[in-house]
Amino acid sequence: MDTSPPQEDLISFLRYELAVPVDSINLGLRQSRHAPNLLPIVLWQYGLVSTQQLDQIFKWQEQQSQVRDSAPSWLRLG
User: Pfam families of this UniProt entry (predicted)?
Assistant: First the structure.
């Protein structure tokens, strides 16, 4: 499945930091294919992550956003 670099980072976070099974991630990706930014919500709706994990995901995404925003303009990818 095609994923963007930020999406790949999210998937790595889900797998290695939160230990979300690959099958669960794949289901979430299929269900959110038209709106990939909704992957965390889809995982939560299907009961594949807890509300505590969802909160961790949102905090991680916010941190990633701040890192991207603070990078020099010549270093930003998109």
Answer: DUF2949
Characterize 53-66 residue by residue with b for buried, 16 or more Cβ atoms within 10 angstroms of its Cβ, and e for exposed.
bbebbeebbeeeee
Q: Is pLDDT above 70 for 39?
A: yes
The overall pTM is greater than 0.85: no
Give Cα 59 to chain centroid, integer Å: 11
pLDDT of residue 65: 86
Distance (Å, whole) CA 23 – CA 69 = 32
**Contact criterion met (CB below 8 Å) for 6 and 30:** no
Rounded to whole angstroms, what are the CA distances from 40 to 10, 37, 47, 61, 72? 9, 8, 11, 10, 28
